[in-house]
Amino acid sequence: MPRPIINEDECSACGICVDTCPNGVLEIVGDAAEPVHDENCDGCAACMEDCPMGAITEIEED
Ligand code: SF4
Ligand code: SF4
Which residue range is the domain that position 46 belongs to? Predict the structure, then answer.
């Protein structure tokens, strides 16, 4: 299953990735985005491409 890896130190909690993700994977939790529904991630990488902070460092596949 793919899932986005988020660097919480770089994340500004802007919410762009939350809006970008077509599968509702991401939510803002506290002061950073988290993949709260990573079971729905299809690995499209749209969140990584749209993050203005470069905070989504990779889409991990396992
Ligand atoms: S890779 Fe695609 S499906 Fe997965 S969290 Fe990012 S935008 Fe959503
Ligand atoms: S788009 Fe980037 S900076 Fe904005 S909430 Fe998502 S991970 Fe954080």
Answer: 2-61
What tens digit of pLDDT does each residue of 3-61 get? 999 999 999 999 999 999 999 999 999 999 999 999 999 999 999 999 999 999 999 99
For residue 10, give the ligand 2 atom closest to its CA: 3
User: With a 6 A CB cut-off, is 55 part of the ligand 2 pocket?
Assistant: yes
Ligand 1 center from residue 11 Cα (angstroms): 16
What's the number of domains the chain is made of? 1
CA dihedral 3, 8, 12, 17 (to 10 degrees): 0
The CATH number of whichever domain residue 17 belongs to comes to 3.30.70.20
